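Morning, I've got a small favour to ask if you have a moment. It would help a lot if you went through both lines with me. Thanks so much in advance, here it is.

***
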Amino acid sequence: MATVGTAVKLKARRRKIGIPFLVLVVLAGTALLSFYLRPEFFVDKLQQFRVWRMGLQPGFVVLNGQRIRYVVGGAGKPLVLVHGLAGRSEDWIALIPYLVDNGYKVYAPDLLGYGQSARPDVDYSISLEEDIVKQFIDSQDLKQPDMAGWSMGGWITLKFAADHPERVHKLILLDSAGVKFDPKNVPLLRPKTEADLVRMMQVLTPHPPHIPSFYATDILRGFAREDWIIDRALKSMYTGKDLMDARLNTIRTPVLLVWGREDVLTPASMGEQMHNVIPRSELKIFEGCGHLAPVECSSEVGPAMVEFLKAGGNATPDSGQGTAVAH
């Protein structure tokens, strides 16, 4: 009888252990399946966690009746970061630690149509986004912040500096658009297939990562949802109405131009062109990285940005170009 009782107790114990284990297995399987079906959701959550770990706070502000999301963090001099086409504020994560650790309070908005900001039925032109940036700066009561723009964001901030020179202290342009160039690779920013996605990454970086098919499928879903916005933004750019070629020599704020040597989307020759015309400019070209230089060369780009921002000044106005340095 004692043996029978012991067996019953063992079965009961196994049952108690087995049920929680089964629940854990089911939960783990559900999580894996969810990740397989929607990996971008988990990547977004990871990015948001990283933002939180950095001490950045999310916020929303209504501009022209449209909700604009942003993140802000750090203490000290204000620095506004403007992302590029199909980007969002989290694109700056690799650089933000260098900035907040060196006495800057960073403001990184999601431009209209991107990230968690509103997506109204508008043209998404450079001029429109410039106005959103201006309103955002006003909403935060920033008098003369430093500014940095990456790719399309560089174009936006460059135009802002030309239109409102009194509103910008220093300007950093990273692999920036804004002047005439051969746009042969631009259509690759609208991938429709896995092969398109591979080609897009080859344009963005000389070290394209392998993207598993299940992950590529989810990325392509996101591009499909936002394609109408990118289409309108590119169509506006193609008109040439916001090109800055004829206005580069009017920029009087100190400008740091940062480029990846292997950038094939907005080639380093564009940086050289801007540098040759912008009076108070400094050009730094980083070897081994492309259009994603702020990410893949962040350990070099971050300190270069801080050095420029903390320096007393650049070449004086009308003295010709500043300095060009290859890294």
User: Anything to note?
Assistant: The first strand starts at residue 57 and ends at 63. Confidence is low (pLDDT under 50) at residues 314-322.
